[in-house]
Amino acid sequence: MRYVSTRGKTPPMDFGEAVLTGLAPDGGLLLPHSPPNFRSELPELQTLDYLEFSARFVSHFGLAREDANSLIRRAYASFDCEDVVRFESLGQLRLMELFHGPTLAFKDIALQFLGHVFEVLLARTGGVLNILGATSGDTGSAAIHAAKGRARTRIFMLYPRGRVSRLQERQMVSVDAENVSCLSVDGSFDDCQALVKTLFADLAFKEAHSLGAVNSVNWARILAQAVYYGYASLKIDASAGVVPVVPTGNFGNIFSGYLAMRMGFPISRLVLATNDNDILARFFATGVYKRGTVQHTESPSMDIQSASNLERFLYYLFGEDGERVTWFMKRFHEHGEARLEPAERDHLNDAIRGVRITSEAMRAAIKTVYDQHGYVLDPHSAIGVAAAHSMASELGQATPVCMATAHPAKFPETIDQVIGEWPRHPRLDALVEGRGRVTEIPADLGVLKAHIESYPPLS
């Protein structure tokens, strides 16, 4: 399996190189040159449990089957749910709980996998890795918990000061590990993400400091997430196919579902649900990708106005034309707006439909589901449920599967305000209060570089 860049200027590389590289040297994102088609394997795959299915799935992408089996079992050994994910029924909707990992968010599924992949690859090559990432909420804690204490690895995680939940921040800064550096940035998530992308574009600095990506720009994140879309499509009895409904910020999660659909799994289409930061919903409605002002909401992981993984979707929309992708992304970053051509816009909604859900609709979904089913949704998952209800007439006979991306105990204030109940979880109750291990920095590239350079070389 060879991997190519969405911008077409990076020589093809193998799986290990793609994972350790993260962001391609030409600024693009890496994808398999010829993704497999699983259609002929579906009957056999349907009989497997999640661990077996996952190992079988990822072994198609450059991991030996024996390595995949061992790695997958280690990655998910700490999950509370024996089958990693769990399904719930909410009337006509199905809910896929993805939050049974160590930090109670769907990001654990991908990042526990990635952490073990890093460990295997570095042990084989004798290399070291300074992981650099930005988070709007859950990625940071999941990445830190995947990397903490690992040999030959250090992690620098940027997050926007005051724009993640209290518990999300505590999950990051309370980790007492020498190889973890939490950076509280005076700015938005988009500012944090821009710093990371700019530093990866500095190829001399990247090579000198062995930088690696943990954000969803890293191909291994997309791969691990595509697994549960394929799994859901086979485990849910849906003669007309399933429609994953995905609360979306940076586009990595929903792109994973789109990729599973392209690879032959019975997914009819996908519903992209945004909060008030609706750049993606507007894009899929109009073909205009236009940056707005980041709104601070009760679903902070979705408070984004520049979605990194949209580039991977554009690569396919543009017929794998790297020059067209490069022009579109350059136009967006320089002018804050880029537009599709009419012919491109005609095919925009073939696979994905975008919906904007207001904070009021999100809260109403939490209350309705609790009143009718006794089930507590977190704000992000509630946005997905609200989107599924709003799209019910358009989905026909297909079965909506809403992605439950976080445990409600991570957002107790909002839940308590809506239903008068303060959700709890022992993992969160055990968090130690206090300042923790954190460094405050401005949104300044020079300051970030100096911070990374202040650490001794890894060995």
List keywords for this structure.
single chain, 459 residues, alpha/beta, six-stranded mixed beta sheet, five-stranded parallel beta sheet, 15 strands, 16% strand
SSE layout and pairings?
Blueprint: E1 3-5, H1 15-21, E2 30-32, H2 42-45, H3 50-58, H4 65-75, E3 86-90, E4 93-97, H5 107-125, E5 129-134, H6 138-147, E6 153-160, H7 166-173, E7 180-186, H8 189-201, H9 203-208, E8 211-213, H10 219-235, E9 242-247, H11 252-262, E10 270-274, H12 279-286, E11 288-290, H13 310-317, H14 322-335, E12 337-339, H15 342-346, E13 352-356, H16 359-373, H17 379-390, H18 392-395, E14 399-404, H19 412-419, H20 426-429, E15 439-442, H21 445-453
Parallel strand pairs: 4-14, 5-6, 5-8, 6-7, 7-15, 9-10, 9-14, 10-13
Antiparallel strand pairs: 1-2, 3-4, 11-12
Briefly, what is this?
The protein starts with a strand and ends in a 6-residue tail after the last helix. It contains 21 helices and 15 strands.
Please, could you describe this protein's structure?
There is one protein chain. This protein has 459 residues and is of the alpha/beta class. It is 44% helix and 16% strand. It has helices at 15-21, 42-45, 50-58, 65-75, 107-125, 138-147, 166-173, 189-201, 203-208, 219-235, 252-262, 279-286, 310-317, 322-335, 342-346, 359-373, 379-390, 392-395, 412-419, 426-429, 445-453, and strands at 3-5, 30-32, 86-90, 93-97, 129-134, 153-160, 180-186, 211-213, 242-247, 270-274, 288-290, 337-339, 352-356, 399-404, 439-442. It has a six-stranded mixed sheet with strand order 3-4-14-9-10-13. The chain has a five-stranded parallel sheet with strand order 8-5-6-7-15, sandwiched between helices. Helix 3 (50-58) packs across helix 10 (219-235) and helix 4 packs across helix 5 (107-125). The two termini are 30 Å apart. The mean pLDDT is 94.
